[in-house]
Amino acid sequence: MPRSPVLVKTTSGWVEGFQRGRTRIWKGIPYASAPMGDLRFRAPHPPEPWGGTKITVNWGPMAPQPKLGVLSGVSSSREMSEDCLNLNVWSPASDGARRPVMVFVHGGAYVEGAGSMPDYEGTNLSQRGDLVIVTLNYRLGALGQMDFSSFSDEDNIFESNLGVRDQVAALTWVRDNIAAFGGDPDRVTIFGESAGGNAITTLLTTPAARGLFSGAIAQSPNPTTAHSSGRKTEHADQLLRRLGVDPTDLPAVATALQEVRASDLVRLGGQLQDEVARREPGVVVMSPSMDGDYLPKYPMDAFRAKESHPVPLMIGTNRDEATLFRRLKLAILPTSRAGLLEMLRQTDPGAVDRILAAYPAPHSSRTWVDATTDGVFRVPAIEVAESHATHSPTWMYRFDWASVLMRVTGLRAAHTSELPFVFGNFHAGAGRLFTTLMSVPTRRRVHRRIAGHWLRFARHSDPGTATSPWPAYTGDRRRTMIFAPDTRVEDDPQSMERLGWTGVARHH
Q1: For 414, which DSSP code?
Q2: pLDDT tens across 349-404, in order?
Q3: Is position 365 annotated as part of the catalytic site?
Q4: Fewer CB within 10 Å: C terminus or N terminus of the chain?
Q5: Which helix (H) or strand (E) covers residue 114, if one does?
Q6: Under DSSP, is residue 72 helix (H, G, I), strand (E, B) or coil?
Q7: Catalytic: which of 194, 289, 308, 461?
Q8: Helix-helix angle 365-372:337-347, to 10 degrees
Q9: 185/39 Cα distance (integer angstroms)
Q10: Is 321 a catalytic residue?
């Protein structure tokens, strides 16, 4: 009897997916053991081999998170579990053809989201590019983004950077298994948006990730989101006190961290994140930790020292990133005059006059939202590009497209608005929001252009095409692709704002 075309052998056992049209799909494949019990707050362990064949036709559980989170778009009926370290694969065929691979890391402020979100369904990209798409889950919130390592003792070990370690474990799985799904382990492009974009810039400076990918695309990253082990320990201390635990009583700490319900960690971690963000604008509780080991340096310092992994990089932001945060009243970003001034008062008060002078109407409410976009997203991404370009090919973009509805509501080219045009999914949450009142021919045309550049980069390590050349970024000309109705390349767009924010000190 001929073997099923969706039956594939992995290093842990056989998996059987399904075929839809011309695409073969596998959902919920474990890439690590369940991080539960003694493995809670520990680095991911390889998955236990399974006997027989694992049927992979349903999404795996997503990481514990707030239900109906504003950034996730995930249905409240979707299963959540600490046993969430799984991934999904889309491929034209499991035929040994060694196609390029794209591995997507989802966003959601490191507290929400899943690789199984409808916005990230990989069929369109896989078919359009004849390549393999992988999406993954990783640990979120207090279970994955806080650092309790300072509360370890000889009997109880807690490890840092669990979310980053999960992503490295998933990339290791891809290296070891993707050839069986028709992919090329030597041509793996990692890409991610928002917190996923931060994950990309972090992985570019994580020693354990070196050699696991051949190219990277960072969409709307906040590359400054990472904090010192001292600050992360303060946050862990505060969470323990919210649990009613004395942080100096290490046996009690160990018991509490093992026994507390995941839902309580989600709730208390979210409260702590919001409280700290209001008290110290720009500080993100759920973030990578500069632990001196797994993540030895602040990622921005590693980029400035020319120590990022030498692979081709695409990086960019949306024209109006911060409008979404302002509209949803999210505390994680300081989008008001008071919030931005307080952030600068705590970090770099001398920069205030220089920054305000860069904007034509320095006291308007729009200026403060634009300044958040520049200070949190755009200029740090430019600094990454400028440093990385000194040793590896780098391309910069700005996404300006906005539907009539997005312009009328004032959201314009908001955070996440490029995602539907990358994946070509217009009937999911973000796709519906950002393309309402945009004609079908227009959205298809924008998708063809955006996805075409992304897929070209994954296949050829260069996003330029014959009909749409895209020059590499350099520190002298700062050439940037502007995706807009009149898509074009500009030298050093918004240069005054760039100069105003360049070199501004950050919370570490």
Answers
A1: B
A2: 999 999 999 998 877 888 999 999 999 999 999 999 999 999 999 999 999 999 99
A3: no
A4: N
A5: none
A6: coil
A7: 194
A8: 50
A9: 28
A10: yes
